[in-house]
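Q: A reviewer asked whether we had any structural model of the full assembly, not just the individual parts. We don't, so I'm hoping you can provide one. Inputs are below.
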Amino acid sequence: MSTRKRNQLKMILLGNSGVGKSSLMNQFVNKRYTNLYRATIGADFLTRDLTVDDNLVTVQVWDTAGTERFQSLGSILYRNTDCCLLVYDVTSADSFRALEGWRQEFVLQGSPRDPDTFPFLVLGNKTDLDNREVSRKLAEDWCRTHKMEHFETSAKEARNVEEVFRSGVRATLNQLKGKDRYVEHPDQVQLQTGKPSREWYCTC
Ligand code: GDP
Ligand code: MG
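A: Here is a predicted structure for the entire assembly that you could use as a starting point for your response.
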């Protein structure tokens, strides 16, 4: 019998509409890609089990429609999120510039206890295209300033998609071990005992 622990973790994809959030989710969960554009209505989530460093984790990926921005649904959507994936399109400078706003929006509405140590990952998607507007260096410099991990991906070619989600899980597990968000309830961090995962979640 496996001694691995099963826990659930919530990740959310944020970014301008059209950058490839739904495609990244679809590639990660279903290993599929379609060129057909289908606008996401409201929000949706899919799950996939992943084993990272011997932790069996059920990753719940939340996909959002850009229109949720500044609407009250935001706080409900963002609550209890463990890891936030900020997505831009490398062929759209606008989508990159919008990341700061998305980050602020998440911090404001999701209220992570310590935004400075909260796991944000930044994804530059559509690297299979050659009409690039955002250089890797520009994005890396910006991410370094904000202490966020940066990845370049292609949902179309499944480039780096698996790695991104693995890194997100790893960053989340490391942070939870660090107890940054659980100072008031240290006994509720269940990574060592394998109890159900709801208690992982920030209670703020
Ligand atoms: P969302 O609005 O952020 O959810 O974006 P979608 O996932 O719906 O993608 C918007 C459009 O970009 C669709 O036509 C996708 O097929 C396309 N797309 C998404 N990811 C990629 C990618 O990695 N490369 C290319 N070339 N197109 C992509
Ligand atoms: Mg979508």
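A: Points you may want to mention in the reply: Residues 17-23, 35, 37, 40, 125-126, 128-129, 154-156 surround guanosine-5'-diphosphate (ligand 1) (CB under 6 Å). The helical segments are 21-30, 73-78, 93-97, 99-110, 136-145, 161-177.
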